[in-house]
Amino acid sequence: MTGKIKQIKTVPADPRGVLTGSHYLDGDHAAAEGCIAAGSRFFAGYPITPATEIAERVSARFPRIGGIFVQMEDELASMNAILGASWGGAKAMTCTSGPGFSLMMENFGLGIMLETPCVLANVQRGGPSTGLPTLVAQSDMMQARWGSHGDYEVIALVPDSPQECFDLTITAFNYSELYRMPILIMMDECVGHMTERVIIPEADKIRIVPRRYTTESPSTYLPYKADDDLIPPMPPVGEGYRFHVTGLTHDEKGYPVMNAATQKKLVSRLINKVKDHAEEIIITDEKYMDDAEIVLLSYGITGRVAIPAIEKAREEGLKVGSMRLKTVWPFPEKRIREMSKHIKGFVFPELNMGQVVLEAERCACGNCKVVRVPHAGGWVHDPEVIYDAIKEAAK
Amino acid sequence: MSEEAPPKIMRRKPVTDHPMSDLLRIDRFPHVWCPTCGLGTVVNCLGTSILKTPEVDPNHIAVVSGIGCAGRGAGYLRFDSFHTTHGRALPFATGLSLSRPDMKVIVFSGDGDIVSIGGNHLIHAARRNMDMVVICVNNFIYAMTGGQTAPTTPTHARSSTSPFGNSDPPFNLPYLAASCGATYVARWTALHVRRLQKSISEVLKKKGFSFIEVISPCPTLYARLNNLGTGLDLMRFYHDNSEINNDADLKSLDINFKGKIICGKFVDLDSPTYRDRYDEENEHILGDKFIPYDLPDFPHISSNSDKEKIEK
Ligand SMILES: Cc1ncc(C[n+]2csc(CCOP(=O)(O)OP(=O)(O)O)c2C)c(N)n1
Ligand code: SF4
Ligand SMILES: [Mg+2]
User: Fold this and answer.
1) Is A81 in contact with B92 (Cβ distance < 8 A)?
2) Are B173 and B109 in contact (CB under 8 A)?
């Protein structure tokens, strides 16, 4: 049995980076402030609409708070630079959008394999290819889940507002240290570019998970010997551990071992360290769920677009509940499966042609209706279309 | 006849360990490299240089490799070592070096890795004068994958994907690195062990982007596909056909098939690094408001608390 995730003593945020107060910020800028408040002092990025503003704000703020910013030659480089910086001990982040996200995928996998804490924000725009550089979509959700080769689990958080861009960026950094892996923030152009009030709390109210360093001495330390909760503590660089890490399949020593048994052991642990802690990782925002016969599933901007449709349906007496996923990966499969046995149906609008809804269909297993509300992107749903889908589920 | 004292026997300390055993992951031997491959020699030169350079603490050396036969270097060198992905050793090293200016970051990788798939990273790391040492082992071929054409394969040489001869011109690596801004550029062959060691010792003590090309025999693929004999034959070829000229015009350093190999230290200058420039530029505008990046918090375990060593 996997143990509960080890509770690491959190520390208050470094006040030097926290702009306590009420601000009027767009989602990109709020994510940059979240990155800084979380204690990140290393950022590598490559410009791309609609994510560039995150890098721009960080580049302006870092020199005043002891951070180092580097604009790399491309997204392959950005992803690798944050991995290297993280191994150096820095909390590190990068940001991008669709085309750059594709370029980052190989080395996102390296981050998964080396178990490297870091944060990658993807401000989604319409695709495929160059697609709609300035217009919204949520169509990289399956790429976030499966975009790098091989078998692995990911953690992806999805904010619906500038405030959540701030909050969830801090959560992402904390998760990255807790679960020792790169964490995805799957923003979208709409949330990234909308400006709203963002409350930044006092530094001591922001709790930061510090790195989980080993307490073993260099002579007994094994880089990939996991604790009960499946997470191996990290070695500090430059302190005589002389450890080795590799993207090849490796044993507890971190040495490459090319056989099926080692592969099974490693890949299972990489998957189970997320799966077994899914309950602790999954965050949702729920409303009207007590009496819900129809559950509207959503994430990001689409959760907000659905509100008028839900309100209208409830006014008409339809028992609609709302479950907005702040954590899309891991998907709350247990909850959805359980719910499907008691409700009439799910309605799942997304700004893509049907991605995360496939998970809902899988978990519902035919127990109840699952109504897709696809959208190719470029604009958000008309709430009327979502309303119609609710009616369809209620039939 | 007076009795003479018996001659004194010089007693040396018995050798129980390989002199390099602290710097190699002996527990991983035997290594994957072929007999008479040049890679062992290059690793040995790196180790010897580190032993001969007391200014650098081995605990403060990090080795980063990409993928390939040469890319396996990080796996055998007993430092904090990172075996990354194909072509990406330099950007990984960039992050590591910037986040840890107290570390000497060494990239050890192959010609295909650094110059083909990682070529963009090479030119930009050199341009920015990122503080790192790059040891690029050039065997003129993609060895690990079975001998395909590399951007270093000499014109007319055969490879598994140029079975009738390579029609492309190869890169002139010292010229490329120097023109992009590398502040130390040298080329040696695996035969020039002492000169290579001297170069490595020099760059270990130097700040900025240092690039050392090491021409190294790949008997199994490059030599076999081109009927050039064994690793030893290639070493003999280097002996007969290499010429040392530190003052050579960088443009003249092209390597032709079975042609002369001009070696030497071609560039050695001081120039501010990325970090120097970043700090200077920001401080110039921000004045007192500028706060330079400091080392992140991490536990100090090793006894040598050599914080003073941190060069800025
Ligand atoms: C993205 C990617 N593409 C291709 C490969 C396959 N591959 C592995 S090593 C290698 C070439 C290595 O050549 P070089 O860097 O010259 O090293 P050598 O083996 O010659 O020492 C290639 C193409 C890979 N691992 N990753
Ligand atoms: S294939 Fe060539 S480069 Fe690779 S280990 Fe063998 S001799 Fe060395
Ligand atoms: Mg090669």
Assistant:
1) yes
2) no
Q: Is the ipTM of this complex over 0.85?
A: yes
Final residue in a domain of this structure, among A166, A181, A208: A208
Which protein residue's CA is at the shortest distance from atom 3 of ligand 2? Answer: B218
Q: What are phi and psi of A239, to 5 degrees?
A: -115, 20
The predicted structure's pLDDT at residue B308: 38
Would you tell me how many other CB atoms lie within 10 Å of the CB of residue A311? 15
Structure tokens at B40: 């062992």
pLDDT-derived band at B7, boundaries 50, 70, 90? low
- Ligand with smallest separation from the Cα of B234: 2
The three-state secondary structure class of B76 is helix
**Helix, strand or coil, per DSSP, at residue B108:** strand
Give the count of beta carbons closer than 10 Å to the beta carbon of residue B94. 32
Q: Residue A143 falls within a domain, yes or no?
A: yes
Q: What is the mean pLDDT of residues A356-375?
A: 98
The tally of CA atoms less than 13 A away on the side-chain side of residue A208 is: 20
So what's the pLDDT on residue B3?
57
How many residues would you count in chain B?
312
- Asked whether B107 and B70 are in contact (CB, 8 A), the reply is no
| Under 8 Å between Cβ of A108 and A82 | no
**Closest by Cβ to B292, choosing from A16, A66, A76:** A66
Joined tokens for residue B79: 């430092």
Q: Is residue A249 part of a domain?
A: no
Q: What is the mean pLDDT of residues A34-49?
A: 98
Number of domains making up chain A = 2
